[in-house]
Amino acid sequence: MRKWVIWVTASALYVLVNFHRFAMGVISDQLMAAFAIAAVGLGGLSSLYFYLYALLQMPAGILADTWGPRRTITASAVIMAAGSFVFGVAPDLSTAYVGRFLVGVGVAAVFVNILKLLADWFPPRYFATMTGLTTTVGFLGGFAASGPFAHVVEAVGWRWGFHGVGILTAVIALGCFWLIRDRPAPLPAAEESPILGSLWVVLKTPETWPVFFAKVGITGTYLAFFALWGPPYLMQVYGMTRPEAGASSAWGCSASSRGGPLSGFCRTGSLSSASFPSFWPAAVTPCSGSGPPGTSSRRRVLARTCSPSASSVAASFSSFPASRSSSPSGSASP
User: CB-hemisphere CA count at 13 Å for 246?
Assistant: First the structure.
């Protein structure tokens, strides 16, 4: 029972990680008006999240193995809450960047530390399935940021919406501190290989690169539309209202969430990865606690950071080409 309480608590924070990933899309026009920026400026503000997410994946993995998931996730939640409040009260673009920066730093370590908890609390054969289930739960944040958040913005404005998210994040931070435990029992001290040596082992492993490039292609395209440019495009080109455009993006998040448990089942269930490849769960399973007995934990951590880094790099770069295809006034070109 304890492992499920830990997973639910950590996954609740991961929902908000995905909320911040998608929330910019439904308020893009209001942000451009509030801070007097064009589409390129909005792309820069949004992409800061993804740049930080990519850069901090390796430090996040090291913290998971040294500082522990409980303290790392709690600290991440506190930083996220602060970023939400700062972004909500931002009077100018510089302050908005500070808020977005804090959010980016806060969200970066959450998913990797959840994987660490899954590896330590659940049997190895369920790791891929639980990873897929965690991804599915996380997409609830994207769903909320696209559909329900659009109604909140229409009712009370985007600033109060971010204040509410900040309060919710602070409450979850308390829950993470009180309920999460790093592992069922203390582990004996183990000798670790140097970080650079472990990184080289991960980089020269052939299984690392299919996952990396698959995430670059898939996630970059996906987030470019659903997380930022999709809602304003639908509003400006097709005349949709904000709730209608948000609902359209929400359906995209809902559809994506179905693939997590399915891909995990394909890895650990009756369908094997040999007959039905599932890149992310299949690749992360041997890297996060269920690999060969001789695999060092540092190498597992470094391997875990590859796929999130790839997706974040792709998403951050995809923000700018889309923004440059917009008109000077910031409206999206058909």
Answer: 26
